[in-house]
Design a protein that fits this description.
Layout (H helix, E strand, L loop, with lengths): L1 E6 L12 H10 L3 E6 L5 H11 L4 E6 L1 H11 L5 E6 L5 H6 L5 H10 L1 E10 L2 E3 L2 E5 H12 L6 H12 L5 E7 L3 E12 L21 E7 L3 H7 L14 E6 L1 E6 L3 E4 L2 E5 L2 E14 L1
């Protein structure tokens, strides 16, 4: 077996490049081949993942945060390669959903000794997402957070992004169509989840299961800034789902139309509405504990 490590050298606070020899040795000690590919900027994990597959890697591991994981999925999906995750980013939300250890040594051991789980992959327009995609408020937050991350790391960047977005917030009109749901209303956001967490530990979708063949859809009514501030802390524990302003259901496909609505895919803004969302059941094998 050959393991390819896709390393984001600037993810989180850990100097992960200092651990490259450790990653190689851990694989070699088990009789595996190992290769390391260091990303050079935004989007490069996709190309590096494709290269790892082309060079014979059976397991391709994302060594970084949620952005690295998402980019890697877009590079290796359909190749037959198994994905691993060593979470070294600031959020590591999808690793949290899968129960992958946050400790570097334990996660490395999981790559080489773990079990295989087939997970679903979401699709928004022509892009794959592994964790959460959304339209509306969250997409604006993602835009602001990515700017703030240049100066502030960790979950605090997301919180600051929320408050920056809130200053310019306006609810928007949506038309949403799913297999069993048609919704036309003013909304704050629509989130479509394959994983439970985003934003560095916020439990946005406590009902999401990454291998049930369905998206967990949350529609949040248009509301005042004050109400958003009251709702926001509840997301960390998942208690927002009990609020009357929040509606949830499961779906295999969702189409959304709205004016000037930006689309967020795993923390990156990829365009504007209209947006078509779907799910690919058991599309990728991932190593888990």
């Amino acid at each position: 077996m050959k393991v390819g490590y896709i390393v984001n050298p600037v993810a989180g606070k850990k100097q992960v490049v200092e651990c490259i020899n450790q990653m190689k040795k851990a694989a070699l000690d088990r009789g595996f081949e190992a290769a390391v590919y260091i990303t050079e900027g935004f989007g490069d994990a996709t190309g590096k993942g494709q290269r790892a597959v082309d060079e014979g890697c059976d397991v391709v591991a994302a060594v970084g945060g949620d952005g690295t994981v998402s980019e890697l999925v877009n590079g290796i999906l359909g190749s037959g390669a198994v994905m691993g995750i060593i979470p070294t980013g600031s959020g590591n939300d999808f690793a949290r959903t899968l129960g992958i250890p946050s400790n570097f040594d334990e996660a490395l051991g999981c790559i080489l000794n773990g079990n295989i789980r087939s997970i679903d992959i979401g699709v928004v327009n022509d892009r794959y997402f592994v964790n959460v995609a959304s339209v509306g408020f969250d997409a604006r937050v993602a835009m602001e957070t990515n700017k703030i991350k240049k100066r502030v790391s960790g979950p605090l960047a997301y919180v600051l992004g929320v408050f920056k977005t809130l200053a310019e917030y306006k609810p928007f009109d949506i038309e949403l169509e799913a297999e069993t749901e048609t919704i036309r209303k003013q909304a704050t956001l629509v989130a479509l989840a394959n994983g439970e967490y985003y934003g560095g530990g916020m439990k946005i979708a406590p009902g999401a299961v990454p291998d049930d063949g369905l998206l967990e859809v949350y529609v949040v009514d248009g509301m005042s800034r004050l109400k958003i501030l009251r709702l926001f802390p509840l997301i960390y524990s998942g208690r927002h789902t009990g609020r009357p302003e929040v509606r949830s259901f499961k779906a295999k496909s969702v189409n959304i139309r709205c004016q000037n609505g930006y689309i967020n895919s795993d923390g990156e803004v990829i365009g504007q509405c209209p947006a078509s969302f779907g799910i690919m059941p058991a599309a990728l094998d991932v190593i888990v504990p």
